Amino acid sequence: MLNLLYLYDNFPYKNEFSKTKPIVMIKNFLRVQPHDKKIDVALLIARLGVGGLMLFHGIPKLMQLFAEGEIQFGDPIGLGEEVSFMLAVFAEFFCSILIFFGVATRLAVIPPIITMLVAVFVVHAEDGFNYQELGLHYLLMYLVLLIAGSGKYSLDNWFFKQKE
Q1: How far is it, in rounded angstroms, from Cα 71 to Cα 88?
Q2: Which long-range contacts (CB under 8 A, 24 or more apart) does 47-51 make?
Q3: E-only strand ranges, the chain
């Protein structure tokens, strides 16, 4: 039988992780890592592109949210139409603005990643690749930003700039 307490007590990095404060962990997660200038320009283009293009999906949803009348939106994961719609608005509008300007980019891409996973693999699961392709493109761009961060030309870099 596997003894989890034994594994925890003998985990080689336990002391290093336990000394790290949560705020330091968050700053390290959001901190912009140094890249080649070409990569920073590519990340800027990716952020502006995916953030700006997704706003075209988010703005009509935001307008519909504040319009009078009943919200007509699917309930793909059983949260209710209104909750699903508000989560889509949050991901496609508010997170897109954060991504566009490079603010908390690694955190801001998580809701759109979830939204695209639901759109591709739940909503359009039976529709074929032609209906899934756009969502997959967005998903891949969000994953790149999650891994690489926002790059040098972002507000993340300005906020968390390391003093040398």
Answers
A1: 13
A2: 47/99, 47/100, 47/102, 47/105, 47/145, 47/150, 47/151, 47/154, 48/100, 49/141, 50/96, 50/99, 50/138, 50/141, 50/142, 50/145, 51/96, 51/97, 51/98, 51/99, 51/100, 51/101
A3: none
Spatial separation of the C-alpha atoms in residues 29 and 44, rounded to whole Å: 18
Task: Give the distance from CA 59 to its chain's centroid.
Answer: 18
Distance CA 1, CA 143 (A): 38
Are the C-beta atoms of residues 67 and 120 closer than 8 Å to each other? no
Contacts of 115 (CB under 8 A, 6+ apart): 87, 88, 91, 92
The candidate with the shortest Cα–Cα distance to 101, out of 139, 55, 68, is 55
CA distances from 11 to 2, 5, 7, 19, 24 (A): 14, 10, 6, 14, 21
d(CA 70, CA 87): 17
pLDDT truncated to tens, each residue of the chain (164 aa)?
444 444 445 544 444 555 556 666 666 666 666 667 888 899 999 999 999 999 999 999 999 888 887 888 888 888 888 888 999 999 999 999 999 999 999 999 999 999 999 999 999 988 888 899 999 999 999 999 998 888 889 998 887 775 43
Question: Tokens in use for 119?
Answer: 């759109």
